[in-house]
Amino acid sequence: MWLLAPLCAPACGGHSQALVVYVPTTPPSWATAAPIRIFIPGNGTSSVPTHATGIPDEVFRRVVLGSGGGRCSSFAIEQVIGGSDTGSVLWSGSVVLAELIGARAATFGIVPGSTAIELGAGLGLVSIVASCLGARVVATDGDESIQPVAKRNVLLNQRLQDVAGSQSGSESNEGGQSGAGSVDVRQLWWGDVAAARALGSFDTVLGSDLVYGTDGIVGPVAREASFAALLCTMWLLSHENTTLVLTYRERKPIEARFFTMLWEQFEPDVEGASGEAWRGEASPIAGVPESSSVRLFTFRRRRRGRTGGDTP
């Protein structure tokens, strides 16, 4: 989803709302696994349903990372089935990004003590995985209504990791997550310069399916304005050594414009990637049908004197 404030560019404004529920023809590999037992404060012990993504009664989705191990391999995410906002449910891009963080955390700058910020965090899965691996994460979204759910997901997974740690005999840290990571859930509108500057810069900027939209509802002019506001926010939250990590699944032709604009201020952090024709890295994940069309992009800010200059 995207929400923005009219501060980076005069044309910025408005918001888009949509709900996409994907029902695969076959369930993910983890859907047949036995439910895990969790502790939800105030509600006692409960089972996490392990249905396929998009099934209406899947209030909780179990996400098992093939790249992870121990406390940072199994997560439970509460969804808002039937919610009116795109952040109400998990998207394939967020599951792919979570899996890639588990496999390449150090490459993305996610190590114990590092800082990261997620844009369009929605339910918080990506931020929760990064924090489990030791990063201090700020999970942001423009939709204030989804933040209580994200906060519950942070607490829920802290409890899960506590249980996993006690079963394995490892010690829990103060925040309940391995690697002494943490998640701070906040509202952030793209294009809000003052809010972005107040947050400072981060070692890693994360985002999944950020430029999704329905052109018939918003229109190309407003869509491009949203791209500009998003890029302005990315720039303000980064420094020259920041790694920008994005996953994206192409849905509308206008979305290509975002990457043209992105190229003006950021450059690929991938050896051999050159030219605007570069369209990321394929990253299919077993058990996530849509992931075959999700691409991974890693960028850094352009240096002084290169195309795009030194200001957004």
Which features characterize this protein?
312 residues, alpha/beta, eight-stranded mixed β-sheet, two-stranded antiparallel ribbon, 26% helix, 19% strand, disordered C terminus
Walk me through this protein's architecture.
The protein is an alpha/beta fold and 312 residues long. 26% of the residues lie in helices and 19% in strands. It has 7 helices and 12 strands. It has helices at residues 92-104, 125-132, 147-168, 193-199, 215-218, 220-236, 256-265, and strands spanning 37-40, 44-47, 60-64, 74-78, 115-119, 136-141, 182-187, 204-208, 243-249, 266-268, 281-282, 294-301. Strands 5, 6, 7, 8, 9, 10, 11 and 12 form an 8-stranded mixed sheet that branches. The chain has a two-stranded antiparallel sheet with strand order 1-2. Strands 3-4 form a two-stranded antiparallel sheet. It is globular, with a radius of gyration of 19 Å.
Shape: globular
Q: What integer is the average pLDDT? A: 74
Helix content: 25-40%
Q: Please, how many helices?
A: 7
What fraction strand?
15-25%
Catalogue the unreliable spans.
1-57, 171-178, 306-310
Helix and strand composition category: alpha/beta
* End-to-end CA span: 22 Å
Global Rg: 19 Å
Number of strands: 12
SSE run? EEEEHEHEHEHEHHEHEEE
Characterize the largest beta sheet: strand count, sense, and whether it forms a barrel: 8 strands, mixed
